[in-house]
């Protein structure tokens, strides 16, 4: 697993101040890997259960009729982190099965250590499996407390998040029950 980050990324309408990325080779076809990661509830399973990184917090997913699997489809997450209420709305902005999916925040996210973000993954064939690249480009939160917390914890959280998605994808590839 290799890590990247620290560079500025530009999307169609936004420049983000920070980024983190991870690359991993996975023993699954690009099609099977994409299908597993295309489900936001599977992609974000590390957020749905309490963990040390979430300080015992969790996030719940609410999907629109597109189930987060179509351009323009909405994904809402809300939950708790260190006893604070969190919420974020996302929308899928790019989806090219089996190679790429990108989503970004809409509105004003209520998050503690990162603010607006764009996140996604790229998949390329690699030998008998796939090369997975997971990334997040993000800004600090908009509040004074958020900017302080974000400067200290944002990079740690962003690296944890992309690493967990990549590791979860590798675990899904090993599990015949998971559909890969």
UniProtKB/TrEMBL annotation:
SUPFAM superfamilies: Bet v1-like (SSF55961). It comes from the Bacteria. It holds the Pfam family Polyketide_cyc2. This is SRPBCC family protein. It comes from Ciceribacter thiooxidans.
């Amino acid at each position: 697993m290799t890590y990247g980050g620290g560079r500025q990324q530009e999307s169609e309408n936004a420049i983000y101040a920070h980024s983190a990325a991870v690359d991993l080779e996975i023993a699954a076809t690009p099609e099977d890997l994409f299908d597993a990661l295309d489900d936001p509830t599977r992609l974000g399973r590390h957020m749905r259960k309490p963990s040390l990184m979430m300080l015992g917090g969790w996030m719940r997913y609410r999907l629109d009729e597109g189930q987060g699997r179509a351009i323009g489809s909405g994904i809402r997450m809300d939950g708790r982190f260190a006893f604070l209420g969190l919420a974020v709305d996302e929308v899928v902005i790019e989806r090219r099965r089996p190679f790429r999916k990108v989503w970004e925040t809409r509105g004003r996210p209520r998050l503690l250590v990162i603010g607006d973000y764009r996140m996604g993954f790229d998949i390329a064939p690699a030998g008998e499996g796939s090369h997975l690249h997971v990334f997040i480009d993000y800004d600090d939160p908009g509040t004074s407390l958020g900017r302080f917390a974000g400067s200290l914890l944002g990079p740690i959280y962003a690296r944890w998040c992309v690493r967990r998605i990549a590791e979860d994808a590798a675990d899904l590839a090993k599990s015949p029950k998971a559909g890969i």
